[in-house]
């Protein structure tokens, strides 16, 4: 973009949106990058609208000038989806925050897209209801970004991915057209379900501005147990047994390999080791229900059976909220990676659950053969076939072999018929690996949808795939 074209774009933005526009070095540092680890990029403008019509105005102007707009939410993404691009502007939803309505009869909540997830959770809780979406970044991530990436999280095994919670959306298309479909009905089969086009599209097809979310009955009980299992086949037996005995009351099933458990509990003095002796694999299991007199007993009975059968070697059942927080703290310690490891290469993959142990063993062997003594931490949700790996080669310092590590890990995932992204999206970092998971016909259809809705290719240009 020439300086003259850039100046014309900024002048029109300023005239239309005034104080909502920031340029040059006045753009705060946090808006120059997301959590992906990519180097900061100074956008030509930062747009911070307060209302949907301001989003529409910004996109109309960008469309006329052919300027890329990168939508930004809480900037907690790990795939580079909210990373600014050179010569482009960023549009942050951070000022479009707030609860508009809670409908206790329809069990729905209407919110602006920039509302932090934790704020929505608390509003639902105060109304005696429950939002089934939950992520470790709940205090920072925004609901619009959760939907744009179809976020997963800790309770997918019971409540499903983010798209399962959406009843209606308001979206601004790349040409500035506002599509308002704030539906509250669970059953609405009138034509195409257009909201599904935008959920998981990573801001490449439209910018979500308002949302109607489906809420659930608020569980009356939550019980948590931390288990040690001999090996991964025992973990699978535990999962099958818990599903059979607890049914929909099974609300979380988090698995940690010793690589993760030993490293994090060894490095973080504030983490208490839940179990006294080492085990082959660790499981954090949560049950939530509606029978205060019986629920705890049901879980205790299940664990007694698992212990007697040798499926579980040892277990500790939380008896207070503090103990529950301590058990979850081990799994949620992932937020400390940067402090403990420096630069990392992180993976969010999906694999058929019964293949996970063999795939991980193969990856670990190949990784250590290539980089002896390097760190590879493995954990995941497992109950929904989602696995996370975090790699660091200490000898490489700040110059981590990201590409070589990624080729190794995602090559193994591809060979096992898995997906290169289970819940974090594609963004920039996984774009060249998308064909590992999607067929040529699927990629061609994605390109046709992008061309139809964004013929000027201004929304999150270059993310997910290249036209």
Automatic annotation (TrEMBL):
GO terms for biological process: respiratory electron transport chain. Residues 39-218 form the FAD-binding PCMH-type domain. Its cofactor is FAD. One of its GO terms (molecular function) is oxidoreductase activity. Keywords: FAD, Flavoprotein, Oxidoreductase. It comes from the Bacteria. PROSITE patterns: FAD_PCMH. Gene3D superfamilies: 3.30.465.10, 3.30.70.2190, 3.30.70.2740, Vanillyl-alcohol Oxidase, Chain A, domain 4 (1.10.45.10). Pfam families: FAD-oxidase_C, FAD_binding_4. Belongs to the FAD-binding oxidoreductase/transferase type 4 family. This is FAD/FMN-containing dehydrogenase.
């Amino acid at each position: 973009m020439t300086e003259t074209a850039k100046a014309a774009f900024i002048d029109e933005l300023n005239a239309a949106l005034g104080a909502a526009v920031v340029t040059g070095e006045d753009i705060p540092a946090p808006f120059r990058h997301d959590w992906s680890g990519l180097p900061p990029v100074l956008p030509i403008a930062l747009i911070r609208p307060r209302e949907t019509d301001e989003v529409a105005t910004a996109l109309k102007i960008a469309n006329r000038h052919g300027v890329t707009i990168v939508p930004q939410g809480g900037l907690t993404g790990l795939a580079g989806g909210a990373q600014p691009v050179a010569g482009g502007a960023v549009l942050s939803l951070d000022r479009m925050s707030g609860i508009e309505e809670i409908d206790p009869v329809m069990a729905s909540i209407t919110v602006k897209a920039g509302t932090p997830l934790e704020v929505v959770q608390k509003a639902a809780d105060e109304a005696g209801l429950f939002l089934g979406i939950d992520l470790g970044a709940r205090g920072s991530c925004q609901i619009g970004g959760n939907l744009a990436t179809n976020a997963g999280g800790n309770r997918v095994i019971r409540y499903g991915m983010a798209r399962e919670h959406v009843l209606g959306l308001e979206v601004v298309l790349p040409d500035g057209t506002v599509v308002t479909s704030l539906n509250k009905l669970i059953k609405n089969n009138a034509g195409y379900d257009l909201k599904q086009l935008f959920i998981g599209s990573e801001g490449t097809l439209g910018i979500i501005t308002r949302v109607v979310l489906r809420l659930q009955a608020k569980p009356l009980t939550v019980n948590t147990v931390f288990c040690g299992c001999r090996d991964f086949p025992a973990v699978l037996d535990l999962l099958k047994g818990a599903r059979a005995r607890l049914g929909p009351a099974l609300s979380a099933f988090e698995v940690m390999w010793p690589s993760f458990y030993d490293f994090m509990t060894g490095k973080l003095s504030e983490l208490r080791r839940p179990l006294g002796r080492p085990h082959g694999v660790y499981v954090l299991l949560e049950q939530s229900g509606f029978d205060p007199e019986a629920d705890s007993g049901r879980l205790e009975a299940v664990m007694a059976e698992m212990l007697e059968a040798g499926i579980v070697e040892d277990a500790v059942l939380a008896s207070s909220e503090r103990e529950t927080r301590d058990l979850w703290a081990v799994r949620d310690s992932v937020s400390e990676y940067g402090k403990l490891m420096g630069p990392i290469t992180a993976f969010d993959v999906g694999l058929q659950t019964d293949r996970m142990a063999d795939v991980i063993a193969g990856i670990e062997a190949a990784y250590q053969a290539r980089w002896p003594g390097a760190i590879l931490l493995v954990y995941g949700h497992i109950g929904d076939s989602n696995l996370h790996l975090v790699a660091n080669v200490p000898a490489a310092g700040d110059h981590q072999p990201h590409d070589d590590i990624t080729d190794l890990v995602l090559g193994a995932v591809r060979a096992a018929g898995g997906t290169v992204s289970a819940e974090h999206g594609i963004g920039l970092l996984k774009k060249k690996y998308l064909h590992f998971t999607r067929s040529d016909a699927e990629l061609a259809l994605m390109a046709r949808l992008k061309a139809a809705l964004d013929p000027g290719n201004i929304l999150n240009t270059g993310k997910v795939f290249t036209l």
